Amino acid sequence: MTTGPATSAPLTLATPVQFLKGVGPQRAELLAKLELFTAADCLFFFPRDYQDLTDLQSVAELEPDKLVRLRGTVVEIEMRGGYSGRSMLGVLVQCGEGAAADYVRAMWFNMPHMRKRFEHGQQVLLTGKAKKKGGRWEFSHPRVQWLEQEEPGDAERKILPVYSLTEGLHQASVRRAVQASLDGCAALLDEVFPPEFLAAHNLLPLREALTQIHFPTDRAQLEQARRRFVYQELFILQLALAVRRLRLQVDGSAPQLEPTAKIDARIRRLLPFALTPGQEQAIQEIGADLSRHFPMNRLLQGEVGSGKTIVAVYAVLTAVAHGRQAAIMAPTEVLARQHARTLGKLLSESRVRWTTLVGGLGTAERREILAQIKSGDIDVVIGTQAILQDDVEFAKLGLVVVDEQHKFGVRQRAQLRKAGQAPHYLVMTATPIPRSVTMTMFGDLDVSTIRDAPPGRMPVKTYLANDEQRERWWEFVRKKLREGRQGYVIAPLVEQSDDPEDDRASVMRTFEALANGPLEAFRLGLLHGRMSNDEKEAAMAEFAAGKTQILVATTVVEVGVDVPNAVLMTIEGGERFGLSQLHQLRGRIVRGTHPGFCTVFAKPSTPEGLKRLEAFVASNDGFELAEVDFKLRGPGDLLGTKQHGLPPLRIADLARDEAVVAEARSDALALVQQDPGLTKPEHERLRKQMLKRYGAVLELGDVG
Ligand code: ADP
Ligand code: MG
C-alpha cells in the first residue's frame, strides 16, 4: 500500500487530522487554520451554534407573534433603496414542495449588507415571529441559518452542530472530522472528575457529554452536555484562583499593620467628616486584612462620588503609623494630582511626608525623589504608572493602592510585587462590575463594596421621552434656567452623518437647533473632542463660572466634571449610549444643592435597546444597571478582555452562566479546603488541568 499510515490503524488522541476518515491532506491544511491538528483537537472543538431541525413549523401552523422555526428555499430576493440611505430587503422563502408549497417573506430594514448573504436556491432555517400582511406571513428581522446540502447521517440528526469555519472549508468536513474522532478515540479520554463528584454535582460523564455537545439527541441533552463543560471550565478556573489565594496566604509574608484603637483615633481626627456606613464597613474589612501576616488583596468598588478616596487614605495612614511606606497609583496625572491635593489638605497638620511621582519630572528632581523614597524619608508616594518603573525602590513599602484600575489584571498586580516582604494591595474601581465577573476575572481578590453615598446627594428624576414631548421639556428647562440653574445637553456624535435621522445625534446640529430655537434667549456653550485642549478648558471654565447656562457636549463631559449648580441633563440619541455611560452622565447632576432632572430622547430600534432605556429610567443604582447591561450586551469592553491576564473562556458565558460561576466557586473552595495541594490521587487530573491552563499566569508553580 502507498497511502501512508494505514487508515485502519487504530486512532489515538494524537492521530493527525489528515488520517481521519474523509479528511486527507488538503482538508487537513484548512483544519490546521482552525488549530485543529489532532483527533483530540477535534473532540474539543465545540460548535459555535446549532441548527435545530426539531419541531419545525409549517406555514399553515403559523400564528401571529408566536416564536417559530421554518425551513425553506430562497426563491426571490428583492432590494429597495440603497446602501447609504434607507433600505428594505425582502426574501421570499418557499416552504414545502409541489402542491403543498407555501411562501413566507423575510424582511430586513436598513441592513443592506444582508443582501450579499442570500442566493436563489439556498436552504434556510428561519427563526422569528411572523405577522400576516396582505395575505402573506412576514418575518421582520428573523434569525437566519443557512443549511448545507444534506450529508449522510444528517437525516437522523435533528440538531446539527455549526462550527467556526475558514475559507474553503465546509460544515460537512468539520462534522465528519469530529464524528470520526468521536468514533475512534473518545473512549481513550480520561475523565477529570472523580465518579462520586460527577454524581454529586449532576454532571454528564465526559464521553457522553462530548457526543452530546457535538451531535445532541435533543435540546435537553445538549443543555446537560453544555452545562458539564461550562462547569468544568469554571471549576478549573476557580480551583486555580482558590489555590492561588491559599498560596499567597501560606507563603506570602506581609507586615502586620493593625489599625489599633490609638491609630484609629489619630486618623479619624484628621478626617473632615463622619464616614458613611459603607465607608465604615470597607474600613473594617481592610483593617482586618492589614492586621494579618499575609498580603491583603482587595478590590474596593463604589460608584463615582461614593467616597473611596478617604477609605484609601485611612489604609495609607494605618501603614504609615506602623512606620511603613505607602504608594497610591492613579491611571492619569490629573487624577494623581487630585489625590495629592486631597491628601495634602488632610495631612497639612500632620508629620506625614509625601510626594508625587509622575512622568514628566526633570532628571535631577526625579533622582532626588527616588533617593528619598529609597532612604525612607518619604512616607507616601502618589503617582502614575511611573511608580512601577524598575528604578523606583522603596525602603519599606507596606501598602499599594491602585485607583480606578479595574482593568489592572493579575499580571500587573504581580509586577507590583517587589523584593522582600510583599506589600498589601488595595485596588479601587468606580465601574460597577457584575458579580459573575468579580468572581472570575477578579476572583483572586476579596471585594468590598460601598453602596451608599455621602449625605447631601440630590435625587434625580429620569424620563424617557419622544419627539412629541420635546417642547414641554424645553419649556421646563427654560423655567429652571430662569431660576438660576444650569444644565447639560449631551449628543453622541460630533457632526451629523448623511442620514437625516442622525440630526439629533450630532452635537453641532443640536447646538444650532437650540441656539436658534427653544433656548435662543440663553447663553450656550459647546464642548466636544475635536476642540483643542485650550478651547475645551475655556468652555469648561465658562460653564463652571456660570457664564454659560447650558453646555452642549459630547461624552467628553463624562469624566472629572463637577458643577454643583448644573441640575438639568438632556440626552439626545439615547439609544446610542450604553447603560453605564447613561448612568455616568446622570451622575453629573447629583452633586448639587438642588434636585436633578434627566431626560433621554431616544428611538430604540431593538427590543434590547428599549429594555436598556427602561432599566435606566427605573433604577438609580449603578450595580443593578451593570447587571442589566451585562445580561443584555455581554461583557463588552468591561474587562478590557485581554488585560485581566487570564486566558479567554472557551465555552462559559459569564452573563448567561452566572449561576454556574457561583456554584463552581463554592465547590472549588470546598475542595481546596479539603485537599489544599490537590495531592489526593483522585484529584490528580484536576490538578494537572489546572496547572496546564493557569499554572503560569497565576504563578501556581509547583503545586502538589
Ligand atoms: P470616589 O469614590 O469617586 O473616589 P471621592 O472619594 O472622590 O469619591 O469622594 C467624593 C466626594 O465626597 C469628595 O468631595 C469627598 O470629600 C466627599 N466625601 C467622601 N466621603 C464623605 C462623607 N462621609 N461625608 C461627606 N462627604 C464625603
Ligand atoms: Mg476616586
Bound molecules: adenosine-5'-diphosphate, magnesium ion
Mean pLDDT: 87
Instruction: Please tally the helical runs, counting DSSP H or I stretches of 4 or more residues.
Output: 21
Q: What oligomeric state is this? A: single chain
CATH superfamily of the domain at 460-619: P-loop containing nucleotide triphosphate hydrolases
Structural class: alpha/beta
* CATH fold title of the domain at 460-619: Rossmann fold
Beta-strand portion reads 15-25%
Largest sheet: 7 strands, parallel
Fold and architecture overview:
The strands form four sheets. A seven-stranded parallel β-sheet has the order 11-12-10-13-14-9-15, sandwiched between helices. It has a six-stranded parallel β-sheet with strand order 16-21-20-17-19-18, sandwiched between helices. Strands 2-3-4-6-5 form a five-stranded mixed barrel. The chain has 704 residues and is an alpha/beta fold. Among the domains are: 1-54 and 166-184, DNA polymerase, domain 1; 55-147, Nucleic acid-binding proteins (OB fold (Dihydrolipoamide Acetyltransferase, E2P), Beta Barrel), CATH 2.40.50; 460-619, P-loop containing nucleotide triphosphate hydrolases (Rossmann fold, 3-Layer(aba) Sandwich). A hairpin with a 6-residue loop joins strand 3 (87-95) and strand 4 (102-109). It has 21 helices and 21 strands. The two termini are 49 Å apart. Bound molecules: adenosine-5'-diphosphate and magnesium ion. Residues 273, 275-276, 279, 302, 304-310, 430, 454 line the site of adenosine-5'-diphosphate.
